[in-house]
């Protein structure tokens, strides 16, 4: 396995935990993001994820560099699944180890926020009566075509 | 020759996921105008552009052999 990867099969979180464990690690946080059935009153039947795979893996490696710059003794592994995912499937896993727990928690949250900002992965929600590609609505992207 | 990739909603609008075009020496801004005129629905869209897998600026120049990706707002996680 790679430490930063886009996968098409079911994510096994334990693999990523094991990948960051080492003798100096006193704490590991493992975050898994799952497919949610209800979003703002609308029922999702399933999701389809797409990615620019090569760039996505590169951007996840960059996030690791950012994390190690901010929390020098951490080690991180990230995987994101693409393709068709059903309710409760794991879409993303982030495992972070550090000597002490505080940094493992902080770095893990930082990593998921950065994934949502810079990693070229897209989610399509499929409902009973339609479907839509979702975009990050938290901030305005780089440019708008006029 | 440059390679253009389209993703997610932009791929749906373009109707293709990849194509090669004989355009070089253009600024990213000009390339964006080119595809916006070529395909319905690009105007008014929020788009990032990556050149060779790095986010590019509007004034960056696209060279022969470059791989350009049109990236709508991401929604991973």
Account of the 3D structure:
The complex is a heterodimer of chains A (146) and B (77). By secondary structure, chain A is α+β, with helices and mostly antiparallel strands. Chain A has a single domain, classed as Aldehyde Oxidoreductase, domain 3 (Alpha-Beta Complex), CATH 3.90.1170. In chain A, the strands form two sheets. In chain A, strands 3, 4, 6, 8 and 9 form a five-stranded antiparallel sheet that branches. In chain A, strand 8 and strand 9 form a beta hairpin. The longest helix of chain A is centred in the middle third of the chain and has 18 residues. Chain A is elongated. In chain B, the strands form two sheets. A five-stranded mixed sheet of chain B has the order 2-1-7-4-5. In chain B, strands 3-6 form a two-stranded antiparallel sheet. Chain B is globular, with a radius of gyration of 11 Å. Chain B is α+β, with helices and mostly antiparallel strands and 77 residues long. In chain B, 23% of the residues lie in helices and 31% in strands. The termini of chain B are far apart. Chain B has a single domain, classed as Ubiquitin-like (UB roll), CATH 3.10.20.30. The relative contact order of chain B is 0.31. At the A-B interface, strand 4, helix 2, helix 3 and strand 8 of A face helix 1 of B. Chain A: It is an enzyme of class 2 (transferase). Chain A: Its EC number is 2.8.1.12. Chain A: Heterotetramer of 2 MoaD subunits and 2 MoaE subunits. Also stable as homodimer. The enzyme changes between these two forms during catalysis.
């Amino acid at each position: 396995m790679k430490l930063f990867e886009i996968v098409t099969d079911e994510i096994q979180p334990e693999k990523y935990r094991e990948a960051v464990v080492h003798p100096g690690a006193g704490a590991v946080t493992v975050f898994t993001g799952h497919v949610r059935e209800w979003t703002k009153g609308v029922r999702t039947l399933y999701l389809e994820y797409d990615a620019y795979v090569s760039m996505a893996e590169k951007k996840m490696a960059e996030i690791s560099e950012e994390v190690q710059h901010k929390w020098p003794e951490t080690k991180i592994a990230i995987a994101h699944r693409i393709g068709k995912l059903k309710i409760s499937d794991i879409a993303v896993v982030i495992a972070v180890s550090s000597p002490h727990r505080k940094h493992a928690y902080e770095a893990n949250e930082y990593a998921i926020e950065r994934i949502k900002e810079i990693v070229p992965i897209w989610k399509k929600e499929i409902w009973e009566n339609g479907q839509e590609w979702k975009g990050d609505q938290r901030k305005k992207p780089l440019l708008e075509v006029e | 020759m440059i390679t253009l990739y389209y993703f997610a909603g932009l791929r749906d609008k373009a109707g293709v996921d990849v194509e090669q075009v004989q355009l070089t020496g253009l600024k990213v801004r000009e390339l964006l105008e080119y595809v916006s005129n070529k395909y319905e629905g690009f105007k008014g869209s929020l788009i990032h552009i990556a050149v060779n897998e790095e986010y590019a600026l509007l004034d960056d120049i696209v060279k022969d052999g470059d791989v350009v990706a049109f990236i709508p707002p991401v929604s991973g996680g």
